[in-house]
Amino acid sequence: MQVQLTNRQQHILWATVRHYIATAEPVGSKALVEEYNLGVSSATIRNVMGMLEKVGLLYQPHTSAGRVPSDSGYRIYVDKLITPSDTLARQVEDALQHRLKWEDWSLEALLQGAAQILATLSGCISLITMPQNVSAQLRHLQLVQIESGKVMLIVVTDSYETHSALMDLPPKRQETQLDLEVIDRELQIVSNFLNSHLRGRSLLELANLDWSQLDREFQHYGEYLKESLAEFSRRSLTPNTTQIMVRGVSEVLRQPEFSHLQQVQAIIQLLEEEQEQLWQLIVDEPEVEEVGKSRVTVRIGSENPLEPIRTCSLISSTYRRGSVPVGSVGVLGPTRLDYEGAIAVVAAAADYLSEALSQ
Hints:
Pfam families: HrcA
CATH architecture of the largest domain: 2-Layer Sandwich
Protein name: Heat-inducible transcription repressor HrcA
Number of domains: 3
Helix content: 40-55%
Structural class: alpha+beta
GO molecular function, one term: DNA binding
Radius of gyration: 25 Å
Strand order of the largest sheet: 7-3-11-10-9-8
Family: Belongs to the HrcA family.
GO biological process, one term: negative regulation of DNA-templated transcription
Number of strands: 11
CATH class of the largest domain: Alpha Beta
Largest sheet: 6 strands, antiparallel
């Protein structure tokens, strides 16, 4: 639901979210009058807060309490009411440049050091993925019909590693009663076309190709192959070693939002034993906010698909080697976190790692 707020309503929402982030206590109109120069009476603030509650941006945890932001309220706060902290971004850049020794340390040690700096300065759990293998290039690709409606995608890399995936034919091809030999010929022609365009490309590039050149006669394969190759690329490049550097857990779990033991155990299990699920989430790049040179994704509360962190916010960005994304940087904390600072530190860390890895 799109909510149009006046400047006054935006200012009061901003003050409410900011005060709740600072105190972890439900916010009343009296606190806003005393702490913020809003230029209106306490009665006006109460009326506006009541309206913000009606449209779902605030809620009362108890009938006698003040109000706290909902996930939707945080979303408007992040998207429209704040800008990332330049001061904290510079602190991250300075700390990374002065405390990390790229020429002396292993890559894993460097990323561990970066994760610790990020956790310290953000006050959140920091997450940094190990870089993916960007050197593997496609040597040969083949689409082979296994049975009616089923196709095997086989990819051979320049190091002669073989990857395969079983896929369904596009629905339109399954609905059409074509001779199996006709489909075999089509698949061979499509395979030849793809080999001529993709041979020598990095596997990471498969998700970002321009498919407009695909011959019109085989256009029905275009979107299907685009999605299939993008998913194949993600699966084949998932690291087999420890996937994510995690720092700052103990400090964050002392926050009042994590007072229930069962919730804490679920988060720790996700961080320690189910990292593949988390890895898939933080390397994904859905709709993003442009912050400086980095693309930063902010998922708030219920926007997170993983149950253990649906009361948390996850802020992430990719770092690159040249123009190719190879890993991700993120912070995880309660929805009541310093978004200005967290967005800034993630963007700054991603920019720093990109610059360092591209040298």
